[in-house]
Each structure stands twice: as structure tokens, then as C-alpha cells.
Amino acid sequence: MQPLDKALRNQLDRTVRKARPVAEQAAGAALEQLGVGEESAPGYLNDNQRALRRRLRAHARSLGDPLKEGAQAVTRLIGEIAYEHWHRMLFARFLAENELLMYDGVAVTLEECEELAEEEGHSSGWALAAKLASTMLPQVFRVDSPVFELTLAAEYQRELEELLAGLPVEVFHASDSLGWVYQFWQTDNKERINRSEVKIGADELPAVTQLFTEPYMVSFLLDNSLGAWWAALRLSDTDLANAESEQELRDKASLPGVPLEYLRFVKDEETGNWTPAAGTFDAWPQCLAELKTLDPCCGSGHFLVAALLMLVPMRRELEGLSARDAVDAVLRDNLHGLEIDQRCVELAAFALALTAWRFPATGGYRKLPELHLACSGLAINAKKSEWLDLAGNDTNLGIALEKLYNQFKDAPILGSLINPEASLDNETLFKQKWEEVGPIISKVLADERDEERSEVGVVAKGVAKSAVLLSQKYDLALTNVPYLGISKHHPRLIEFIEKNYSTGKYDLAMAFIERIREWIKPNGSYAVVSLGEWLYLGPYMQYRENYLEKHKPLLVLRLGWNAFSTPIRANPALIISQAGNEKESSFSLSDYSANKKIQDNVRSTVSGSISQVNIAQIRKNPDMRFINPESSERDLLVKFADARSGLHAGDLYQFFKMFWEVENLSWIWEPVQTAVNETANS
User: Fold this and answer.
1) Could you say which of 76, 92, 448, 621 has the lowest number of CB atoms within 10 Å?
2) Where are the domains of the chain?
3) Cα(593)–Cα(668) distance, integer angstroms
4) What is the DSSP secondary-structure string of 105-143?
5) Rg (alpha carbons) of the chain, rounded to whole number
6) What pTM does this model have?
């Protein structure tokens, strides 16, 4: 499958941005009709509508909408209804266009849904298609949610259907469409938040930090971690000694569907032998069933899907599995994901399910193993007494719930930074494993009729599942860490990072790298798209010193300001590292930050130069900056002269601008004209 071209991506952008306000208006009108926000229920409601109203009010409170003097706020509820209804329709079309929308065990088209709608008691074919999609995706859409019992007014429903029908079929076959969907949903909100210059709290964080990871970044990090491990199995010493090029080695190591086109090799100057640029990851499990991967900021699941597509052919080759069994095995054993925003968790789950169903020779739609995905940012809006009441007479469950409440009360701000094991010690009365908490809650609430208690139980099970994933250790962590400078941090986030990850306090990206180090096993590794400034700017010197003490870089690649296909102000770096402090070891280092276009970065990651650098060389650099060895070995200017102000034109202020006067300031040097060639006669 090919990614969206620019024209299709722009069309998808326009459609999603138009859909959001329509869906929100529809949600608001539907809630107003039921009087959900009013103190008293309208007299015209029947018994079923009154029951739905009560459930929606309880659900609104579980989302954090307050109840004051009988009036129920519905701001968060409107947002959820709009998102869920639109995306259920969107997913239905994805399924239909891929011949995966199932009706009584048979794939149906949207046209056939239209024919069946009246017979099935639905207002339109789209309504039936959406219902079928939610039934197929119980891990995406909560089956018992009152949100889907709400019917949107016909005029809004038609407008949403028309928007969705207007998208070309190619959108639903592209490899990256789902990745763009959420970013476009948040675009207008993100722009509004950035203009407001508010501190970024729970309501703003998902929109501000969401950033779609470019496919070449994902492929590069996977190829040079998991792909390098695989190459070490496939390539002989003779291959590494006699190969004429990197491409020759890629061809020998590749599998059908796994071309390893971004896998980089470096040549030892003394022996002439090739080796993977990031190493061979020999300490990983030799049995792939034991390899655990995690994306702690999984967004729409880009890394997880790419890892699935690599691991399935590998496990088929090593274990002799069928395509279907290999897909199920990878979902069951290898892939784990966390995300601060529940809506992104749904997208990631759908992306994995869709990829699994349309993987060749797997038979299409079927029930999949439970996906190891969880929202690390679920809000606990219940009172502590209501929360603990879920335990009933179960003492161990009560202790577990209290631990969860204390640790996750700020989850919408802290997300995957939370470490559920941090407060546990040998003296604790806590006897329950995190894995056991969710099933026990389900058993306790099996026959629950109280709406408030049921909603609290749903959140508690979600938090318990998040605690499981947050507590485990992994062989490989893969992610695009969130970027957010300290000036934008919420006070609670500042406090938490200062206490737990103080060396990374200047940016959320750096704090996350420190958190990731806690997840990986002693011989584990991580591969991340990271903020690039910390590698060389002066204010980050302390962090670089800490990094070189506690982390072992394997491959560091700077991309600069032109790394993304959308106009995003980001200066990323691709980093593969391990825990450790081998001060004399070497690693691979490249700097492509001078590239002017994303296409140049893509080419550079495939064939650009890579230097081998000893960590001791980096330590010798001024401020421990990650710069190429050719630069670090040269004499510094200070050896020859004291340049107090630097070189400049005689009339400096006529020819130069201040940084705030330049819209697209870049760290790339540009030539400037410092004098005129001719002087006009006055």
C-alpha cells in the first residue's frame, strides 16, 4: 500500500476539519433534545429516553463534566459523542472499501447496507454500516456506551454522510490515512491553543503534542533495531566480509514484505568488514515469541502497525507459522501500546485490526486476540469513596484500587510518565497483581444496575489495564516522544518531572527518554523520534552529561527543520540507544540537518554518510555536543584569537535582522549580502 499523495492528504484534511464542527453541533442538539444538561427532564420524554438521559448524565460526570445544583455540564460529553459517531462511520467505510464490513458472516458494500437498512430497522445504510463496524470492533467501541444510543438529527447525519462519501476510495487503501485522521481532527483546536499561549493542561495536551510520524522515520528506526537484529541472524561472516555495498547486504537479509531499505551498515576501516550501524542487539531473546515491544506514546499506532508487518514474516520464517497464526501470535506476544488520549487508543486498535484482517492469506475478518493497548491518561473523576466502594468486601482489591487512585489521579496530565510500581515496597499490604485487578472488577460489577457505579467501574478497569502495561519491562521501546517546552508545562507536570526526571525538565521529550529507560530490560533498547536541540544547544549541556552517564547511544541521526511533510516547526533527531554507561564504546552519528526538503532527508537516511564516533570524543567536545568527529578534531578558534563580537558588516543593523523578525528562523546558515556592488549617484 502506498501513502497518500499531497492532493489526497489535503482533501482528507479539509473533510475532517469540516466534519468536526458539524458532528459537535449534532451532538449538542441531540443532548439538548433530551434535556441532558437541564436540572429536570423534559416532560415529553418517554421511559426509554429518560433512562438514556440518566446514563448520559452519569457518563458526562465520568468524563469530568461537573454537576452543579442539578445542572449537568456537557462540554466533554459533546466532544466524545462527536468523535465517536464520526469515527464509527469513518471506520465503517474503511472496512467496506477493504471488503471487511461483515453482515451475517458475509462482506457487504455500503450500497448493500442501504438496501438492508430498512429491514434491519436503521434510518440509512450509513447507520447500519456504523452499527456493523462497532459490533466488529468491541476493542475499539465500547458496546454498552450510551453515546451510541443517541441518534443524531437527520440534517446533521446527512451532512456527515455526504462529507464521508465525497472522499475518494484511494484514501481508504492508503497506508497512512488513519495516521493523518486524528491530526486533522485536532488541527483547528491545536492552532487555537497555540494562539492562546495558555499553560498546557489535561484538556490541551493531546491536541498540542500529537504529531504524525513520517513513514521514513518509522521505517528507519525499525530497520535499524529489529531489522539489524534480524540481519545478524541472516548474514554470515562471509557476507559481511565480502559485500560490495550496503544494498547487497540488505538484499540478502530481507524477506518478502520486509525490504529493510533503511537498514544501514558501516565498514570497519581496519578489517574491511561490514556491521549494522546500530549494532546487532545480541542480548535480545533469540525466540521472537519472547520479544516484547512497547510504544508508550502510540498515537494512531504507526509504529505498532509497522512492527506487525515486520514481525509476521520473521515469525513465519523462524517458526513455520501460517500467515494467520503468525499475525495472531504477534498481536498476542509482541506488541504493546500506551497513549494519553483514549481516542488515539481507538485509532491504534482499529489500525492494528485493519492491518491484521487484510494481511495476505489470513482469511479476512475474524476475531483477534486481545490487543495490548491502553489509555494512560484516563481521568478518575469519581470521589475516592465512590472509587473504593467498587471493592466491596475484597480487602486486596480495595488496596489495589487505592494505589491506582493515588497514582492515576493526575493521569490526564502525566500519562505514560506514571510508574505504578514507584510507590510499592516490600512492606505494602498490596497482594494483588495488576493483571488480576480488571477481571476482579468485572466480576464484582457483573450484575450492576447503578449507572454511576458502572461508569466508575469502566474507568477502573481501563486504569488497571494501563497499570499492567506501565509496569512491565520490554526489550524494545519505539515511539515519537511528545515535544513540549517547560514554559508551556502545567504546574503539576513541572512538579512531577522535577521530582522524578529532573534532568529532563526542560522539555517533555527529554523527560520521556528518562521514563523510557525505566521500561527497558537490562539488555533492552529504545528507538525514538526525539527533540533534536538537546544534542547540541548550550542550555542542554547538563542533560547531555546525564545522558552519556546513563545511556549508551547506538545510532544518532539529526534531521533538522525540514523533516516533516507538513509545515510543522520541529527539529527532530532519530536516536537508538541502550541503558548503560560504556564510556569508551563507539556509536554511529550522522547530521543531515542542512537538508532543505523532506525528500533529501529520505535519501540521506538510506544512503547518506555515517561516522563512527567514540563516546570519549563527544565528552571532549565543548559542552559535550553531538557533532561529527571531523569537526571535533579541528583546532578551536580560541586557540588563535579572541573573537569577542564576531565578524560583522560595518553597518550591521542595516543588513541583519533580529531573530524575532524572521518568520522561519532556521539553524541552517544562509549566505547574506553584506555590501552593495554599485553606489547610485544622488
Assistant:
1) 448
2) 6-174, 384-468
3) 8
4) TEE--HHHHHHHHTTTT-SSHHHHHHHHHHHH-TTTS-T
5) 27
6) 0.89
